[in-house]
């Protein structure tokens, strides 16, 4: 997810308290479990903010394991929620869900460009969406949000654990997706476990740093932004 981080005054403490409570309630609904069966369709999801007040969310749906593109959709809308660090999911989720509703081919699992439980309150965008949609989700992020890890080996496929700095709890895995490039941070969202998230991430690599579902979501986001600009 490409986050817009505007300067400005500190967030409203009442709003922060409300959002924290909502995340804590949603966290209780998160389930870590393997998929009931091997997916036939896997989706990639990405969002970006073309302007401080607008968001564009993209879904691509691919056949699995061939990764043939089946469908691509987007939704472009206005963002009402202010930027609050640690609560970006609340800015993104409403528009992402509108994009998801446009899909004609519903996926069996969603790979989200962002974090799952590898979040200070275990509710990154992948977990957040999973709970709201009641769908299996996991996150593949380009940067660490929380936790500690030892750098994995330099070769593609090398993995190291991402753990909570205080408790030692496993909250994700750090994966070298391409030789000698910066690693990815993979964590389960909802109705998915770490082993599944890691296995599907590795199965979707096709020579790029990003796995195909999120790579193609990012690619089509750029194309859809051009459509939006031309329509304005």
CATH superfamily of the domain at 29-142 and 191-231: archaeoglobus fulgidus dsm 4304 superfamily
Please provide the ordered H/E string of secondary-structure elements.
HEEEHEHEEEEHH
Percent of residues in β-strands: 15-25%
Give the biggest beta sheet: 8 strands, mixed
Identify low-pLDDT runs. none
- For the biggest β-sheet, the strand order reads 3-2-1-4-5-8-7-6
- Tally of extended strands? 8
- Tell me the distance between the termini: 24 Å
| Average predicted confidence as pLDDT | 94
User: What is the molecular shape?
Assistant: globular
Helix content: 25-40%
DSSP helical segment count? 5
Annotated CATH architecture of the domain at 29-142 and 191-231: 2-Layer Sandwich
* Secondary-structure content class: alpha+beta
Question: What's the oligomerization state?
Answer: single chain
Question: CATH class of the domain at 29-142 and 191-231, anyone?
Answer: Alpha Beta
CATH topology of the domain at 29-142 and 191-231: archaeoglobus fulgidus dsm 4304 fold
User: Compute the gyration radius: what is it?
Assistant: 17 Å
Pfam family, one: Endonuclease_5
Site (Interaction with target DNA): 83
Subcellular location: Cytoplasm
Main location: cytoplasm
Structure described in brief:
The protein is 29% helix and 25% strand. It has five helices and eight strands, in the order H-E-E-E-H-E-H-E-E-E-E-H-H.
């Amino acid at each position: 997810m490409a986050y817009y981080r505007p300067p400005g005054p500190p967030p409203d403490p009442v709003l922060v308290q409300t959002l924290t409570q909502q995340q804590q309630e949603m966290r209780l609904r998160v389930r870590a479990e393997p998929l009931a069966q091997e997916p036939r369709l896997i989706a990639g999801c990405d969002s970006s903010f073309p302007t401080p007040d607008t968001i564009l969310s993209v879904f691509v749906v691919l056949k699995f394991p061939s990764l043939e593109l089946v469908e691509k959709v987007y939704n472009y809308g206005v963002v009402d929620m202010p930027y609050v660090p640690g609560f970006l999911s609340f800015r993104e989720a409403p528009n992402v869900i509108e994009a998801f509703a446009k899909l004609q081919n519903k996926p069996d699992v969603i790979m989200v460009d962002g974090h799952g439980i590898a979040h200070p309150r275990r509710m990154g965008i992948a977990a957040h969406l999973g709970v709201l949609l009641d769908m299996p989700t996991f996150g593949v992020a380009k940067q660490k949000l929380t936790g500690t890890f030892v750098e994995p080996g330099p070769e593609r496929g090398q993995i190291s654990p991402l753990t909570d700095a205080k408790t030692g709890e496993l909250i994700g895995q750090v994966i070298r997706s391409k030789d000698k490039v910066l690693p990815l941070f993979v964590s389960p969202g909802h109705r998915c476990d770490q082993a599944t998230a890691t296995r599907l991430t590795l199965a979707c690599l096709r020579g790029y740093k990003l796995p195909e579902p999120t790579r193609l979501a990012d690619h089509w986001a750029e194309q859809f932004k051009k459509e939006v600009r031309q329509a304005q």
